[in-house]
Amino acid sequence: MIEFHNVSKRYPGTADALSQVSFKLESGEMAFLTGHSGAGKSTLLKLIAVLIRPTNGQVLVNNENIGHIHRRRIPYVRRHVGIIFQDHKLLFDRTVFDNVALPLVIAGVPHQEIGRRVRASLDKVGLLNKEKALPVTLSGGQQQRVGIARAVVNKPPILLADEPTGNLDPELSCEIMDLFSQFQQVGVTVLIASHDLDLIGRMGNRVLTLKDGRMIAGGMHNEPQGFM
Amino acid sequence: MSAISVYIARHLQVMLSTLGQLVRDPMSNMMTIAVMGIALALPTGLHVMLQNVQNVTAQWDGAAQISLFLKQSVTDRQADQLARLIEQRQDVKSVTRITRAEALEEFRLHSGFGDALESLEGNPFPPVIVVFPTEESDNLLTVQTMLGDFRNKPEIELAQLDMQWLKRLYAIMDFGRRGIWVLAVLLSISVLLVVGNTIRLAIQNRREEIEVIKLIGGTDAFIRRPFLYTGFWYGLTGGMLSWLLVTLSIWLLSGPVNDLATLYDSNYSLTSLDSLQSLILLCLSVSLGLAGSWLAVSRHLSAIEPK
Is the pTM of the predicted complex or chain greater than 0.80? Predict the structure, then answer.
């Protein structure tokens, strides 16, 4: 589902943020991406969401090389990738329902369908009773779950999460991770960037480790520049 | 639901929700709409005024007449002879004679200075021959030649072309028309910029929202749509306001103009914008609104990219 082949990313005037990264995530696989801050976790996720383009190498999502797709195609790639942000990126002037409905509105889903799917998604994250609330009235954990509901409402085959538990206490973090496991169980490919090693250890999933832009663990074994 | 009806439904939804936003924030939107309305009302109003002047003068169009004021010494019989002579000319359609007595009588009746005449010795009016050129010769060049002929005749004191003031008026009106065009173009540009600037601010206010929409797969067209519809509403409401301003102004002026017309024994009344002109005004205003928002959107939306 997600393949990186010798991918490097260099921002102008700096050293490589990512260098020669190769790995492959199968459809329905769940993995953690870890490493010290500045190791390139966010850069890697941004490449999958086409927020940035690779300097070298190939990024394949669903067998499509997205490194060089046309600007106009980008929105359609992003619709297949649900993204969960550490800062939630909710719209604070809209209700929970409207926030979650946004990807469906963008995709042109008929009105009646939107209501049904938004409620199903909110039900999944346990916030069905908050659909009319404004995000400011919710706690941090609840806001994060609204963000998750929005990311999955469109049933994307890929789910990316950038430090989803960064601001949450351990108990809430566990709940959020359980949610991700549930999505994996229904066939979604999940990649979670996190530096919460305790939590990652307890989950027992595959772990991709970055260090100074290189993948030092969990990547591919058969590529010449790959690191173990 | 088919793809097309979904598409139409989305447009309608955006159209109504942008209208809703305008209604919910009336103060700041009214400012933009008022600027548009006034800026468009100015050239439109001037155009309507000019059109009215044209209506007034239209009835005199092509009616050049030459008044020949004869010398005091010319007798009525001599004047009659001269009139017949002139009437035989190829380029003259008809002539009218006004005898000294008739001129005196007319003046007494209409001028209101009848009493003043009593104090004068004799009749101060010269005999007058009014010459109407034929339609073919009713142009400035031929009429000028005729004038020259008449001025050479010894019986004639003064030959005056009554059309000259009309020609001057036309020249002034041409000038005015050109001026209105220049004004219209300048004010249209300013309307464009006002809408563009308002939309630019709206884009900046919704920067975060635009970023989030781009992150979750919103196309450029999707993001552009509400701003273009906002521009459309500005254009439509601004155009309606300018129509209202012009119509109201004409209505306010129509009373005094009617009074004035009555004094001139005329039943002339002001005309306002007809339905075609109103439609053109609205279309123009909507196009300006759309163009202004397009300008802002194409310049500023691409600058907002999620990081």
Answer: no
